[in-house]
Amino acid sequence: VKFSKTADVKILAEGNAIRQITIMPTPSLLGRSTREPDPAAYVIEGIKSFLRVAKYGLSDDMKFVAALDVLESCVMLWPLDVAEPEIKYQCSCSAFWSKYKCEHSLAMSIRKKGVQVPPAYHIRNLGVN
Question: Would strands 89-91 and 17-25 be described as parallel, antiparallel, or unpaired?
Fold first, then answer.
């Protein structure tokens, strides 16, 4: 993944356990980057801002809208302790927490763990010629 960053952070939900995470930009950040003179630099700075928040929390002087922009700009992924057949990564997005899978965790599982694309997502099964 071209725009991703790997780092070690404490996961509060796991009693501050140190995990190696991968941070990936969301469509929200990528969409905002298209309005910038240097989209790549904008995305990289967005990932760095998200990583600072993931490691140290929100700063006291951060405005509400700016905090939302940062929190919605990326997702965090880390390996599941007990992997599923198709899903090998846990994701911080709301879809993962409600369905125990999301497009981020599936994509990362395909890319990093050699998971095959599920038949439901094959082009021929989607009706695309």
Answer: unpaired
**What mean pLDDT is predicted for residues 108-124?**
81
Q: How far is CA 90 from CA 28, 100, 103, 108, 123, in A?
A: 20, 8, 11, 10, 25
Residues in Cβ contact with 93 at an 8 Å cutoff, skipping those fewer than 6 apart: 26, 75, 102, 104
Number of CB atoms found within 10 A of residue 29's CB: 22
Q: 106 in helix, strand or coil?
A: helix
| pLDDT value of residue 1 | 44
Burial-class residue 95 by CB neighbours within 10 Å (0-12, 13-18, 19+). Answer: middle
What is the per-residue pLDDT for 46? Answer: 94
Query: Please, what's the largest Cα pairwise distance for the chain?
Result: 52
Residue reference for tokens 């509400």: 64
Residue reference for tokens 């997502």: 121
